[in-house]
Amino acid sequence: MITLSQLTQFLGWAAVINLAYLLLATVIVVFMGGALASLHGKFFKLSNNQLEAKYFGFLSQYKILTLVFFVAPYVALKIIGQ
What we know:
By secondary structure, the chain is mostly helical. The protein has three helices and no strands.
C-alpha cells in the first residue's frame, strides 16, 4: 500500500518532470518555430497559421493537464499533510 508521503513525493516529481517538459517544448516552439513549422508543414500538409494554432493548442492543453493532474493534487496533499 502506498503511503500519503510516497504519493506526495511521486506527484511532486511528476509535476517537476511535466513542467520541465512544458518549458522545453515552449522554448523549442518559440525559438525554433520556423524550422518546426517547415518540417511539420511538409509532413502534415498544414499552413504556418494552422501549425501555430496547433502548437498553441498543444501547449495550453498540456499545461492545463499538468496543473490539474499533478500540481494541484501535490499542493493539496502538501496542505493536508501538515
